[in-house]
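tool_call: predict_structure(chain=1)
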Amino acid sequence: MSKFWSSVLVIVVAAVVGLGSAYAEDAKKKGKGKKDRKRPSPEQIFKKLDGNDDGKLTAVELEKSRRIKDKATAEKRLAKMDTNKNGTVCQKEFTEHLAKHRAEHHKKHGHKKHDHKKGDKKKGGEKKAGEKKCDKKPPAKKCDKKKD
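tool_result:
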């Protein structure tokens, strides 16, 4: 009888170890933690917020965002982003505002600029030929001009 229970114990231990290692592999693949998540591009965020796909954000669309709780907050945010004061925010205005906001955040919290390609920098801070700068801006898109 003791041989039977020894065999059962060995099988149970093997199963637990196997499941534990499988769980650890899953956790690695999924990328647990905030630093492992990839930040969406400003264009992706804009597209998600632009509910009616007209290429402009309004206070009503901003109000539906998870981060904005009420209409007053949505109108304040819209006013900050609306550089040409036409009552809407185009993708160019949104992208510029987000880049400025992210730069201020990095400066305030002491974050270092990241390299697009890890390990591409030589010792001493020199860049390899053909390496792109982190702060290179996408080509500007024209916004609608202020309507009279």
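agent: The longest strand covers residues 56-57. Proceeding to next step.
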